[in-house]
Model the fold of this input.
Amino acid sequence: MGDAGGGSEGAAGGATTPRSRVLAAVPPPARRMPTAPMPPSPALLAALAAAGAAPRLGEPLGRHTSFRIGGPADVFVEVASVPELAGVLAACAAHAAPVFFLGGGTNLLVSDRGARGVVVKLGRPFDFVEWQLAGDAPRLRAGAAVPFKRLAMQTVAEGLAGLEFGEGIPGTIGGGLLMNAGAFGGEIGRAVDAIEVVTERGDAVVLSREQLGFAYRRLELPMRAIVTAVRLRLARGEPAALAARILEAKARRDRLQPKGHPNAGSIFKNPPGAPAGKLLEAVGLKGARLGNAMVSLRHANFIVNLGGARAADVKGLMDLATRVVRQRLGVELEPEVRLVGDW
Done:
């Protein structure tokens, strides 16, 4: 994603589902561990400040995730430029501090104990779009903090085809790129010409499409790096037809996906042969509940936060779903949501 969600299809209809219930079969979560962050070294903080950053200690990551779940970061840094990001990453490398890149906060489940090391988020200056519309091969360059949905709508307004599937994908284009986000048969990787990154040592690099390894809900980079911008190559399309596709995608999402409660998008990737939502519904998990986390009654491949849910609650439901589908259907589910932090 990364940090971008959505893309899997599940069942909206089917057999009548019982009202939500607390699962007696799920063991209670282990005693909650302390959530206090680990104090960073003064030398690391000084190096981050020298890079132009304003580190925040103990920042609750639930404020930055679509699930509204997550404990504190040891250090949280929001960067405003590529040079600042390069300096931050170089400082972290010099002081052996682990780094986690937080995009739009979708498709993530952050531990109740939070995340150790330095959590880096791109600030508002990375929310930009540069259009190159002359000629027969229109292109654009988008900052990694651009909301995926907004970019999809803007390209359609310009009569450009290739991102219509992203109408309802939450999160940023940078996070969506890292998980090759997609929906309804489309995915971001097909439109990528190149990406701009800053490596863990602080070097700014442009990676061509040939250097990128796109696969289903995954992007393999040739080195550890943070994406700062993406260059896309799109095609010209008929505005009315593109607008119709957007409306169709929105109608399908409104019909199939939950609303009204925080969630992280699709929990599991679709295995070969059947959508994960269909499998989860077939084994009766719609409405399953642990604490204040519940498998959505509308779409079984979503878990919703009813208010105050813990990461341990969500993880417990994920473990239950994986076990029951394996035992009853012989299918191994693979998480689409990334587990982040100190588990």
